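Re: the request from the purification team.
They wanted to know what the chain is likely to look like in 3D before they choose a buffer screen. I agreed to run a prediction and write the result into the notebook, where they can find it.
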Amino acid sequence: MGQITVEKNVGGIEGLCVIQPAVHGDKRGYFMETYSQRDMEEAGIHINFVQDNQSMSTKGVLRGLHFQKQYPQTKLVRAIRGSVFDVAVDLRSGSATYGKWYGVELTEENKKQFLIPKGFAHGFLVLSDEAEFCYKCDDFWHPNDEGGMAWNDPEIGIRWPQVIGKYKGSADPSGYTLEDGTPLNFSEKDTKWLGLKDTFHF
């Protein structure tokens, strides 16, 4: 399969994949192919990516859980610096795993990539002092199309690593910290999303 290995249907959720690029290293450093359409298609993954995005976040930042309602996107995500815990939640109507989540740590050292198909909510928590996060999308960003759901909804029960705190009935992160005392850091909109039962589904 060329330069990647693909673990399909991770967590028993159809369509979610963890991709491990081959890294060629020596005393000078390393080289790897971060994306090859040929290798992806040989693995049975046929996606036309049209946009690359990149963000930088500091420790304790949690972005999510987000999705696009009318123009859903498949995303291929990775951390190019630092460490994040990346999560996808199945929101596909009729799916046997509707409401189920899966998470994977993405780091600059392990170089793993996480493929998240259309129909999922997505988010990540920064575990390192800083992290740079980049991802490919198979559709462009459309204004006013973003939806979201509560990162801490007990019905979903995501186990965010290093997070300490007690659910108080909303997505408000007040009172939550990482184990070292770092407070969680959210955008205002991400503190107001509702739980699974009140969330848009595909």
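For the purification team: Residues 87 and 103 are 4 Å apart (CA to CA).
Please add any questions underneath this entry.
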